[in-house]
């Protein structure tokens, strides 16, 4: 019994809706309120949701689309019906798609993404994600539009979503078309057309066909578009006959289709048939039609009058629609007025064209509320009245302008040539100076190399002669005593060892300077390492070396090559084997916190004294200096210090752990 009551109640409300439907265009707000009252009078069940769904579907055009879509979405949330929530969010996203509002559209796309796994279909989510790309493309954000379209296409293929795939191809083609990649856009639209199935939404099918026709028109291939235009027309008629109650949803597409017929027959020169389709397009104009399609009708009609040379009708039409353009889309006001001026010029009415342009200039103040400052500035540049007033002198003015531009260009080129010549002169002077310095340095290096080669040859030849000489005495003389042989052998051994040490030092320095030997950086405790080397030096020389360490640093961690640093300390503390002198060595270590450096002062070191006595010590200093410089330090030997020859060196602290 309850079921029959609900059915009867629903039928009564449907009859009431039919009555309200006739008053739709009389008062939009009253009509909306009536529909919502009918909905609230229904049971708070699936019946109310179904009714709101039908209203949202039948009214996918302003001002009703947002009202009924919002009512459906909120009712679905109240009833916790995810399926209808998903549908309501889809219709709301469609509202912002028509407004080309990428930010609001993105919000609802994110909502649809949440619903998709729950409802088991990704169609709504992916269709509207592709719509974000079209909204961005309309704002000339082409690269971002292409990226989002490709992303939506990838997701559509992953989820086997045909509607999402077609919508993604559609958006990608639009982005390519806006970026002047017409051939790529046409290929994308054709690929989408090939992917159409019986399950593809009618709106997507019609939109793809419309864009293919437009691409062929832009390319001048009118013979190829007739097939697609016929398909578009048949699809629209089939939809309208199947769903007459939702016909207003398709009015924009119907107007677009008729205008395409107008263009087709105008290109064929069949103006009577073109006029028939123009009249059909004009008959479809109503308050719910998108203003862009209304403007398209006016613009196509103006082109028709231009083709048929009906100048008076063209001018009259512009005068008729100017006020509407100002009220609804002032951004193309200048286009219409300029079209009127061009028509007057074609008609031969130059004075009328000048007056029309003056009217455009006078009206520009009222356009400040509509145009941005940049758009208005472009208008002034493009439509300045002087362009018409001086049209008779255009050739003469053009010659003056070309002459002036030529002179300016010539002066700029002369200036550039002068600046470039000065720049080259300076570079040549710098290059000559660098070359001279390099030549002087090379000459100095050659002198140094020759001197070093001479010194090395002398230092190697001296001990080698000693070794050879005493070796000959040992082998040739038969009268030598055993004591003499032992003494000669000892001298041979000492000189051979000195020679080996000298050669090894030269080889080590050579490897370091050539970069073949790399330092190993590791963290070590420098104070412990110093104390260790002091103990080794005192033990090795049996009391000939006395070493004092003066510092207020207890411990210090530095990052350095531990083995090389030990070798440096050892070279400063341990005298050579044939050196029998006694040394009192003092090591002072100071930490400069501001510079983050450790400063070492080694007084009484045998290496500083030996520096002036043999080349082995000199080379050892070079090795030490190379090591210290590699770790951003300094190394210096002072022979004239008051406390005697000393060595000063510093080490930069990279990672420190200091306890004082």
TrEMBL record:
Q: Which Pfam families match?
A: HisKA (PF00512)
By its UniProt entry, which SMART domains does this protein fall under? HisKA
Keywords attached to this entry: Kinase, Membrane, Signal, Transferase, Transmembrane, Transmembrane helix, Two-component regulatory system
SUPFAM superfamilies this protein is in?
HCP-like, Homodimeric domain of signal transducing histidine kinase
- Where the record annotates domain Histidine kinase, the positions are 455-655
Q: From the UniProt record, list the reaction(s) this protein catalyses.
A: ATP + protein L-histidine = ADP + protein N-phospho-L-histidine
- This enzyme's EC code(s): 2.7.13.3
UniProt key word Amino-acid biosynthesis:
no
In the UniProt record, does the keyword Transmembrane occur? yes
Which domain of life does this protein belong to?
Bacteria
GO: which molecular function terms?
A: phosphorelay sensor kinase activity
Signal peptide (from-to): 1-23
Regions crossing the membrane? 403-420
Name the InterPro entries for this protein: His_kinase_dom (IPR005467), HisK_dim/P_dom (IPR003661), HisK_dim/P_sf (IPR036097), Sensor_HK_Regulatory (IPR050736), TPR-like_helical_dom_sf (IPR011990)
Protein name (database record): histidine kinase
| Source species of the chain | Bacteroides cellulosilyticus CL02T12C19
């Amino acid at each position: 019994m309850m079921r029959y009551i609900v059915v009867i109640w629903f039928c009564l409300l449907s009859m009431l809706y039919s009555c309200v439907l006739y008053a739709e265009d009389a008062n939009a707000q009253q009509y909306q309120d009536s529909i919502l009252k009918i909905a609230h009078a229904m049971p708070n069940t699936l019946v109310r949701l179904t009714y709101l769904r039908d209203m949202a579907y039948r009214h996918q055009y302003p001002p009703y689309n947002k009202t009924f879509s919002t009512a459906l979405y909120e009712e679905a949330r109240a009833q916790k019906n995810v399926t209808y929530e998903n549908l309501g969010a889809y219709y709301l996203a469609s509202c912002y798609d028509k407004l080309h509002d990428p930010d609001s559209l993105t919000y609802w796309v994110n909502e649809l993404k949440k619903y998709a796994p729950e409802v088991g279909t990704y169609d709504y989510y992916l269709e509207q994600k592709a719509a974000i790309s079209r909204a961005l493309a309309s704002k000339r954000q082409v690269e971002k539009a292409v990226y989002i379209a490709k992303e939506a296409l990838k997701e559509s293929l992953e989820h086997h979503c045909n509607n999402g795939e077609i919508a993604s191809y559609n958006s990608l083609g639009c982005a390519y078309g806006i970026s002047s990649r017409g051939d790529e856009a046409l290929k994308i639209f054709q690929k989408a057309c090939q992917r159409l199935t019986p399950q593809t939404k009618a709106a997507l099918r019609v939109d793809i066909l419309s864009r293919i026709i437009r691409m062929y028109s832009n390319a001048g291939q009118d013979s190829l578009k007739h097939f697609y235009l016929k398909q578009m027309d048949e699809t629209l008629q089939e939809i309208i006959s199947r769903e007459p109650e939702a016909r207003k949803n398709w009015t924009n597409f119907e107007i677009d289709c008729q205008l395409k017929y107008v263009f087709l027959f105008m290109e064929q020169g069949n103006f009577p048939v073109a006029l028939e389709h123009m009249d059909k397009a004009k008959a479809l104009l109503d308050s719910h039609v998108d203003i862009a399609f209304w403007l398209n009708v006016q613009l196509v009609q103006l082109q028709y009058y231009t083709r048929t040379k009906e100048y008076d009708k063209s001018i009259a039409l512009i005068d008729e629609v100017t006020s509407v353009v100002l009220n609804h889309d002032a951004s193309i006001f200048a286009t219409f007025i300029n079209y009127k001026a061009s028509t007057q010029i074609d008609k031969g009415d130059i004075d009328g064209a000048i007056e029309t342009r003056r009217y455009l200039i006078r009206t520009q103040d009222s356009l400040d509320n509509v145009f941005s400052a940049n758009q208005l500035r472009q208008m002034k540049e493009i439509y300045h009245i002087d362009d018409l007033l001086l049209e008779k002198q255009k050739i003469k003015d053009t010659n003056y302008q070309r002459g002036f531009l030529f002179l300016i260009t010539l002066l700029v080129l002369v200036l550039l040539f002068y600046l470039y010549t000065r720049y080259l002169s300076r570079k040549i002077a710098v290059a000559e100076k660098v070359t001279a310095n390099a030549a002087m340095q090379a000459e100095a290096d050659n002198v140094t190399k020759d001197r070093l080669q001479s010194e090395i040859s002398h230092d190697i030849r001296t001990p080698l002669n000693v070794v050879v000489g005493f070796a000959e005495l040992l082998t040739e003389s038969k009268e030598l005593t055993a004591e003499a042989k032992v003494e000669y052998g000892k001298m041979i051994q000492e000189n051979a060892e000195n020679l080996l040490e000298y050669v090894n030092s030269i080889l080590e320095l050579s490897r370091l300077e050539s970069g073949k030997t790399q330092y190993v950086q590791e963290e070590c405790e420098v104070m412990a390492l110093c104390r260790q080397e002091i103990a080794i030096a005192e033990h090795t020389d049996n009391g000939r070396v006395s070493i004092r360490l003066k510092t207020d640093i207890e411990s210090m961690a530095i990052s350095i090559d531990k083995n090389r640093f030990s070798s440096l300390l050892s070279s400063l503390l341990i005298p050579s084997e044939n050196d029998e002198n006694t040394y009192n060595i003092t090591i002072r270590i100071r930490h400069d916190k501001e510079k983050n450096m450790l400063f070492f002062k080694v007084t009484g070191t045998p290496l500083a004294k030996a520096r002036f006595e043999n080349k082995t010590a000199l080379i050892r200093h070079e090795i030490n200096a190379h090591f210290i410089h590699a770790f951003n330090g300094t190394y210096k030997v002072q022979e004239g210090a008051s406390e005697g020859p000393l060595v000063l060196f510093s080490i930069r602290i990279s990672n420190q752990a200091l306890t004082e």
